Amino acid sequence: MDDEEARTRLLDAAEALFYAEGIQAVGMDRIRTESGVPLKRLYKVFPAKEALVTAYLDRRDRRWTASLRGAVSGAADPVEAVGAVFEWLARWFSEPDFRGCAFLNAYGELGTGPAAVLDVVRRHKTELRELLADAAGPGRGDLADQLLILVEGATVVAALDPGPDPARRAAAAAATLMRAGGGRG
């Protein structure tokens, strides 16, 4: 097993365990056991748990954001694009292993702890806000901020009560904001 294979196996195990059970609840020995990567190689690839957590969140950010961007990319106009965001969320919230936002979960567990982890969380939220600004259309920065609050709120509600309903309710609120010209002037 080379370092790249070990990295992939460790990240796969970390993502499954951290997302399902929490970062602090899962130790490095459990990651090693679940991944099948020898301890020496684990610490060669990720010298500390902070490095593994950062890499897990970074990889999840890239995949999550790319998937959401893909769902929005074919939209003909801002109304359709914003609707696509909430349709995508409804599908995500309905996945059997949905446990809320991995980034908010990490922040909730670690707070302002490890700087590298906090940087990934902040970058993810900035990217999400930029995606929403693109979806909302030019000159609608305030609307993007409002949409971000709807997305985050729906995600938290869905973490407590999984299923598509929180996304649908947030989509209705977003449609009201769009019709009201939210974020203009």
UniProtKB/TrEMBL annotation:
It comes from the Bacteria. The keyword NAD does not apply. Gene3D superfamilies: Tetracycline Repressor, domain 2 (1.10.357.10). Transmembrane segments: none annotated. Pfam families: TetR_N. GO terms for molecular function: DNA binding. InterPro entries: Homeodomain-like_sf, HTH_TetR, Tet_transcr_reg_TetR-rel_C_sf. Residues 4-64 form the HTH tetR-type domain. The keyword DNA-binding applies. Residues 27-46 bind DNA. Keywords: DNA-binding, Transcription, Transcription regulation. This is TetR/AcrR family transcriptional regulator. It comes from Streptomyces vinaceus. The lineage of its organism: Bacteria, Bacillati, Actinomycetota, Actinomycetes, Kitasatosporales.
